[in-house]
Amino acid sequence: MDDHESVKEEVNPAVMLKNQSAEKGANRGSWTDEEDRKLAEAIEIYGPKRWKTIASKAGLKRCGKSCRLRWMNYLRPNIKRGNISDQEEDLIVRLHKLLGNRWSLIAGRLPGRTDNEIKNYWNSHLSKKVHQKEKQSKGTAEMGCSRIRKKRKAMMNEVKADRTREGNSSSGGAPGDSKLSFDVDDFFDFSNEDPMTLEWISKFTEMDDG
DNA sequence: AAAGAGTCCAACCGCGACCAG
DNA sequence: CCTGGTCGCGGTTGGACTCTT
Q1: Which domains does chain A have, with CATH numbers?
Q2: What residues of chain A score a pLDDT lower than 70?
Q3: CA-based R_g, chain A, Å
Q4: Full-prediction pTM beyond 0.70?
Q5: Mapped to the 3 state alphabet, what secondary structure does chain A carry?
Q6: A25 Rama class: left (phi>0) / alpha (psi -120 to 50) / beta
Q7: Which of A70, A84, A168 is nearest to A120 (CA)?
C-alpha cells in the first residue's frame, strides 16, 4: 500500500503539509485517483455500508468516515456536479426556508445532489442572494391557500410538541431531527404533483416573509 | 505581469443518534 | 439498562482558483 502514498506526495504537496499534523499512518487531504479506484472496488464488493471494513479491506489508510464522505459526495453513481439550474436553486431556497440548514433533507429532494454541494452552494451563492431579496421585498407577504395553512399548522404543532417532549436535553444538535411524527418524505414528496401544484410551496414560504 | 482580495469547494472535525452485545 | 462501536449530519477550514487593481 505504499503506492498511493507516494502518488499522493507527488500529486498534492499541499496535502502533505496538512498531513504532518495528522495522526500517524492515516492519509488525509485530497483523494488520489488510485484511492478512488480502490474505494470503488471495495464498495462494489462490500456495498456502501460498514465503512470501517471498507476502509481496511480496500487497503486505504483512511478512516471509514472519510471513505463514506468521498463516496457520498464524489464517487456515488448518478451524482450531478455543478450547473445547478434555476429550478434547483429556487427549490433549494424554498426548502431552506422550510427546513433551515437541514442539508441532507434538502439534498434528498434534489436527485443527484449532495448535502455538501448544496451546503457549499448555499454558503457561497444563495445566502447573500436571499438576504438581498429579503431586504427588498419586506412586507409583501400575503395570506391564502388553505392547503398551505393546514400543512404548516400540522408541521408547527408537531415541532412544538416534539420540542417540549424533548425538553432541553440537547444543546447543539439539529432540533427535532427526523423525530417529527409526520412523514417528512411524504411531506416533501413532489413526485406525484404536477408543476402547477408546486406553487403551494412557493406560497408557503412567502408567508414567512410577513 | 504581478500582487492582493475574494470566492469556491473538497475534506475534516465534533457531536449526537442509533444499534448490537 | 448500559456501553462501545459505527454512522450520519452540520459547521468549519484552508488550499486552489478567479477576479480586480
Answers
A1: 2-75 (1.10.10.60), 86-136 (1.10.10.60), 146-207 (no CATH)
A2: 1-26, 134-135, 137-210
A3: 21
A4: no
A5: CHHHHHHHHHHCHHHHHHHHCCCCCCCCCCCCHHHHHHHHHHHHHHCCCCHHHHHHHCCCCCCHHHHHHHHHHHHCCCCCCCCCCHHHHHHHHHHHHHHCCCHHHHHHCCCCCCHHHHHHHHHHHHHHHHHHHHHHCCCCCCCCCHHHHHHHHHHHHHHHHHHHHHCCCCCCCCCCCCCCCCCHHHHCCCCCCCHHHHHHHHHHHHHCCC
A6: left
A7: A84
Nucleotide nearest to A18 (CA to C1'): C14
Which nt sits closest to A104, CA to C1'? Answer: C9
What pLDDT, on a 0 to 100 scale, did the predictor assign at position A15? 35
Task: List strand B contacts in A 165-184 (CB < 7 A).
Answer: 170-173, 177-179
C-alpha grid cell for residue A4? 498511493
Q: Residue count of chain A, please give it.
A: 210
